Amino acid sequence: MASSEDIQTLILTTLDTQGAIENTDSLKAANGTPIPYLAVVGVLNSLASKEMVAYTTIEKDQFNLTAEGNEIADSGSHEAKVFNAVDAVNGIAIAELAKLLGASAKIGQGKAFKNKWIKKDGDKLVREVQSIVDQTQLDALEVRKSGTHSSAATLKELQARKHVEKVKLISYSVTKGPKFSLTIEKQATDLTAEMLADGSWKTQTFKKYNFAGNPPEGGHLHPLMKVREEFRKIFFELGFEEMPTNKYVESSFWNFDALFQPQQHPARDAHDTFFLEDPATATNFPDMEYVNRVKEVHSHGGYGSIGYGYDWKIEEAQKLLLRTHTTSVSSNMLYRLSQETKANGGVFKPAKFFSIDRVYRNETVDATHLAEFHQVEGVIADKNLTLGDLIGFMEIFFKKMGVPNIKFKPAFNPYTEPSMEIFSWHPGLEKWVELGNSGMFRPEMLETMGLDPDVRVIAWGLGLERPTMIKYGLDNIRELLGHKVDLDMIQSNPACRLDKKMGKELVGKDAIVE
Ligand code: PHE
C-alpha cells in the first residue's frame, strides 16, 4: 500500500500537472492499485488545513456481487445447472439430481420449472426445450462489469435474491488551494519569545487553530455555591434583598466600632483578625458627625447606655482588615438605611437584607476549620420588633431549611442584646447541636447611626460550610476547599435540596462538623 507521503506527492504532482483532480478514483498507486479513500482523505485534510488544496466529497452508490452472485457469474445460475444436468435424451432421476447438485438442485428446480425448461416425467426430470439462455448469469456478469445494471427492476431483484449488495463509494474532487505548492512548509504551532526577538514571526507560517473539536465543557457550581443557591432561594422567597458583599477588605470601623465592639475586645486581637500591612489604614470614612457619635457612645455612653468608659481612638477604627464577619456589611447597610430615612423626610421604610459570602479568621486550621469560611446572614429592620419576632422568624427560616425543631440559648455578642444561639436536636447523636447565632442589635449601635429608637433590628448568622459538608457527605474541609479537592466531586454532585435528604448525606456522629 502506498504511504501517506507517496499519496501526498501523487496528489500534489497531479494537481500541478493537471490543474485539478476531478475524481480521486482516478488516482492509482505506483503498482496500479487504487488508493483507499480513508488514506486519501487523511492526506487531503492535512493539505487543506495548510490551505494547499480544497476538496469536495463525491458519494456514489455501487453494486457489488455477493459471494453467491460471483459464483453465479463464474459458473451459471442454479436453474441453469439443473437444466445442464438433465440429459437431452434420457433426462435424470430426481434422486440423482440432488446427489449431483446438492443445495443448487432444490433452488434451481423451481426456477427451471417456472421457466418451462424442464418437466417431471414419473420419478425423472426431462428437458422441455433443447437450449436455454442463462439470463441470471448474464445479469450477474453485467453487474460485475459495470457496478450496476441497466434495468432498475432487475437490480432490485438481484438485491432481493442477495446476489448483489449496495455499497457507498466515497471519493473526492480536488483543486489547488491559495497556498498550493509542491513542497510542504513546516508550520509553527506556537508563537515563541525567540520568534518575536529575532523577527522570524513575520515570515513564519502558523498552523491554524482547529475549533471543530470537542466543545469545551460547561462550568460547574462548587457545592458551597449550590448550597448558597438554596439559601438565596429561601431568602428571596421571604422577600429579602441581597446585600453587596464585594468588600473583603474592610475598616475596623464597620467590622467592629460601628457594631459597638470595644477597641480592646479580644476578637480584635491580631490572633483572630488578619490586619492589612499595606495599605494599613482606611481613608474613606462616613460623615464625621456619625464617627464622633460612635466615639462618644463607646467612651461615655448615650441612648440609655453608660458606654465602655475608655478613650476611643480613630487610629484603631481606621485599621484595615479582612472582614471577620459579614455583620460588617450589615452595619454599613443599616447606616445607609438611616441616611435614606433622613433623605426621605424621616419616613422609615422597613427592610429585609441578607448576604452569603466569605469571611476570614486567623485561626488554627484543622479538619473542619479553615482561616476563611462563608457566613449566611439575615437582617430585618422594622418598628417595634421584639424577641418574639426573632424567635418566630427563626422557626420559619430553619423549617424552610429542613430543620423543624430548634431551641434557643442565651449568648453574648457585643452588638446584640439579647443574643441567642440556635440549636437543633440531632437524632443520631442524641444531643442539641449549634446551628447559628442571633440577636437584636443594640440601641448603642442603631441610634448612633441615626435610626429612630422604635426601629428594632433582628439579625442572625450561620456558617455555610457545615450544612454543605453534611449535605455532600464530606467529613474533611480539605475535600471541599483547597488543592486536595476532587474536580469530579464538584462536577458530578447534584444540586442541593435543603428540605430533602440527599444521597451521600452524613448522618449520625459523622454529621458533626464543629
Ligand atoms: N456575626 C455573628 C458571627 O460572626 C453572627 C451574628 C450575626 C450574630 C448577626 C448576631 C447577629 O457569628
From TrEMBL:
BP GO annotations: phenylalanyl-tRNA aminoacylation
InterPro entries to which the protein is assigned, alphabetical: aa-tRNA-synth_II, aa-tRNA-synth_II/BPL/LPL, Phe-tRNA-synth_IIc_asu, Phenylalanyl-tRNA_Synthase, PheRS_DBD3
Keyword hit for Repeat: no
MF term (GO), any: phenylalanine-tRNA ligase activity
Enzyme Commission number(s) of this protein: 6.1.1.20
Chief subcellular location: cytoplasm
Keywords linked to the UniProt accession: Aminoacyl-tRNA synthetase, ATP-binding, Cytoplasm, Ligase, Magnesium, Metal-binding, Nucleotide-binding, Protein biosynthesis
Domain Aminoacyl-transfer RNA synthetases class-II family profile as annotated: residue spans: 226-494
SUPFAM superfamilies: Class II aaRS and biotin synthetases
Gene Ontology annotations for the cellular component aspect, listed alphabetically: cytosol; phenylalanine-tRNA ligase complex
Cellular location(s): Cytoplasm
Family of the protein in this entry: Belongs to the class-II aminoacyl-tRNA synthetase family. Phe-tRNA synthetase alpha subunit type 2 subfamily.
Database matches in NCBIfam families: pheS (TIGR00468), PRK04172.1 (NF003210)
Protein name: Phenylalanine--tRNA ligase alpha subunit
Source organism of this protein record: Entomortierella parvispora
